[in-house]
TrEMBL record:
Pfam families to which the protein is assigned, alphabetical: Glyoxalase_6 (PF18029)
Region (Disordered): 224-244
Biological classification of the source: Bacteria, Bacillati, Actinomycetota, Actinomycetes, Kitasatosporales
InterPro entries: Glyas_Bleomycin-R_OHBP_Dase, Glyoxalase_6, VOC_core
Name of the protein this chain belongs to: VOC family protein
Amino acid sequence: MDRDTSCQLFALSFDAGRPADLARFWSGLLGWETVDDPQDGILLLPSDDTGFRLRFLPSQEPKTVQNRMHFDLTSTSLEDQQRTVDRALELGGRHIDIGQLPEEKHVVLADPEGNEFCVIGPGNNFLADCGFVGALACDGSQEVGYFWSKALGWPLVWDQDQETAIRSPHGGPKITWGGPPVAPRTGRDRLRFDLAPTADGDLQAEVDRLLSLGAKRIDGGQDDLGGVAMTDPDGNEFTVLTPR
């Protein structure tokens, strides 16, 4: 087995007070199909080249701080951008202020549980060859960008001024890290990566490989289906799922 590509990004998981309602919002906004999840949650299956699912899992913990990652949705025109904003508002989203400047060409919104996302204006060169889900923008260091490039086997498509970005060789959204300063961690991550070993992969071998790249295992960390809870070099939580 190629040890450089022995896992895939299976899903981006959201902790949700009302998983069905949150899944309904994102399904309506993205046009993705919903299916049941083994952990009493809901999965959204991409209808485009995104390549990973969205997973909504029940949680009683309220959202208290800004998430360390958010989606950047693209637009083909100002009218298209406004249509996306209007659709998000109709589905239960809202405008929020996170310090964006009036001259910036993006609209910052939150979903019904306060998870931030941006609707980017037309003409963004960095996302020009991406689909509607243009990027998953993360607060993180250059080191963590290098880690995830090796962990997923995705090449770096940006590495400048301590900002990094990776993208699947098959296309889809870019995952970006904005470099320092990285916001301090407070509490559990509401958005987390779920990794899955490839079809012929071995869970323990994959965990060992990620440890060798700089990940850490969370003491006692195991999900209900036997997956392994870990953190990346910036302390962001993720789970390596049992092979399916």
